[in-house]
Task: structure prediction
Amino acid sequence: MSGAAGAPQGAAVIIRKLGRVDYETTFAAMQEFTAARGVDTPDELWLCEHPPVFTQGLSGKPEHLLRDIGIPVVQIDRGGQITYHGPGQVVVYLLLDLRRREFTVRGLVNRIEQAVIDLLAGYGVTAARLAGAPGVYVGRAKIAALGLRIKHGCSYHGVSLNVDMDLAPYDAINPCGYEGMAVTQLCAYLPQWRGAEDTAIVGKALADHLARQLDEENP
Result:
């Protein structure tokens, strides 16, 4: 459990490490957790990876799937278009009570993006937001995608960071609905990389950065 002194009562967040888990099972679990939570339910961050899967948001247009490459497409209830999840990508789901934390949706998005930017800066990688395109970018290439669902003042879904993965499936989609958008990953910028071992370290660090951002007074 992580929390900061002086944070609002009930603002501590539990970090759960799920490992590599099926996407649809995890999606259902997020919905069930959010539907069942009460005013005193602690907030949680779920850290995981998924087997290869495309996810299509509520406003998703089928034409953004350019061709069938045998990877399942799952229709889900977050905002946004189509994106890819796969091994070597770190995913953190944010199951939060925004009313209790007094967060706006925009404020939460800012915190998520800043956590990724700060994490990458620690590896010497300069990343930034891109106007009109949620997520985090190195130059014009997307390295982290985010999407949220807010229900009864509580959030689920979250952020995915490309760390050490096969990027080829992105060629079969318009990532997040943007034709020709370049994607990148952290290991491309680091001359020495230990594969899964370093990916696990990045995942833990991202969850920790997010927990700290949630405790900041201002987004």
